[in-house]
Design a protein that fits this description.
about 350 residues; alpha+beta; 6 helices; disordered N terminus
Length: about 350
């Protein structure tokens, strides 16, 4: 059966909600396995991997950089710490104390100085006693660190950060999860939009991929209410029509576009419908092997939601309450999607992956 397209948003609705007139049950929806061709997904992944990252890796959320302790992450086996110095400027560097190797992730920050808890070696963020800082970037939502020895690419001055709604008029939240897989498995999951309504029926219904693996052109709102910009999603993107499930037959229909601006990032942008211009950024950061030698990857997903509806001001005011709910919703989806990514990695590692 073909999903009902009659309630797709052709004009501005008074309410973002829509009622599915002819709902299709999960088992009766149109199979998507013929459309989700392994070669199409593999080609999209190949395009993503060919784009430059400039050796930048996402280490976590800006909000997770606290005054009293560093934000710590292991990236491809290298321990990294990030904190703010006495001037409030973000600094980053190796997470191993150069004196006797103490884990700086466990050390406190006092007045902008990271104090090693083994012997008191004090780091202000400048080179000292063999400790050298790393390039770091705060984009307002996420913190990135540049690791040239690990990345091996030509360095870029700043990471490839997707266009977002203006943060002053948006609500943002960041989810972090870890899976036994590699970054390519996470990216491949996101470049398979066909699985949405089948694998996540509690979240998505009436999903159709309308432009697969081609140049997708769309008018995108970068800052709703503050002017618009014309833009194109790069080659290899996907446009989908989908409804976000609210409760029962109540849904929010949108058109969304997926694209990979760099090897470890996939962005979903709402191109038409409620929340136009809102983005979900999925970043995959390699962590290093676990105690069994299996690769581990952190999924750092940033949701930046915006709307030009008057009522959205209430949502912004309630951001501290909404953020945990947004993280919980992302976490539910990623419990499924990490299982997908882990399964893909397992089959690849044993030479049984059919794609």
């Amino acid at each position: 059966m073909t999903p009902d397209r009659s309630d797709r948003p052709a004009r501005r609705r008074r309410s973002p909600l829509s009622l599915r007139r002819h709902p299709v049950s999960w088992e009766d929806q149109r199979p998507t396995w013929r459309d989700a061709r392994p070669a199409v997904i593999a080609e999209a992944l190949k395009r993503a991997q060919a784009r430059p990252s400039g050796n930048w890796y996402v280490v976590g959320a800006t909000r997770d950089v606290r005054e009293d302790r560093p934000l710590a992450r292991t990236v491809a086996g290298q321990e990294v710490v990030v904190w703010r110095n006495g001037e409030g400027r973000l600094v980053a560097g190796p997470g191993v104390c150069p004196h006797l190797g103490a884990p700086l992730r466990d050390s406190p920050v006092h007045c902008g100085t990271l104090m090693c808890h083994w012997h008191g070696l004090a780091l202000s963020g400048t080179p000292f006693a063999g400790w050298e800082p790393l390039p770091v970037h705060d984009d307002g939502v996420l913190v990135w660190v540049r690791l040239d020895e690990i990345g091996g690419e030509r360095p870029l001055e700043a990471p490839v950060v997707p266009a977002r709604p203006a943060l002053s008029g948006a609500v943002s939240a960041v989810y972090v999860g870890v899976g036994i897989c590699e970054p390519e498995d996470v990216v491949a999951n996101r470049l398979d939009p066909w699985h949405g309504a089948w694998f996540h029926p509690y979240a998505f219904v009436d999903l159709t991929v309308v432009v697969p693996g081609e140049l997708v052109a769309s008018r995108e709102v970068v800052a709703p209410g503050e002017g618009e910009t014309e833009g194109e999603v790069m080659e290899g993107g996907f446009a989908i029509d989908v409804s976000f499930k609210i409760a029962g037959r109540l849904v929010v229909p949108v058109r969304a576009v997926f694209a990979a601006p760099e090897p470890r990032t996939v962005v979903m942008r709402i191109a038409e419908g409620e929340g136009r211009g809102s983005v979900v950024e999925t970043h995959a950061t390699p962590l290093g092997p676990d105690d069994r030698g299996r690769p581990r990857t952190a999924v750092v997903e940033a949701v930046v939601a915006s709307s030009d509806r008057r009522g959205f001001a209430v949502a912004r005011a309630m951001a501290p309450v909404l953020r945990p709910l947004m993280r919980a919703a992302a976490g539910r989806l990623w419990r499924d999607d990490l299982a997908y990514a882990e399964r893909r990695r397992h089959l690849r590692s044993t030479g049984r992956f059919p794609g």
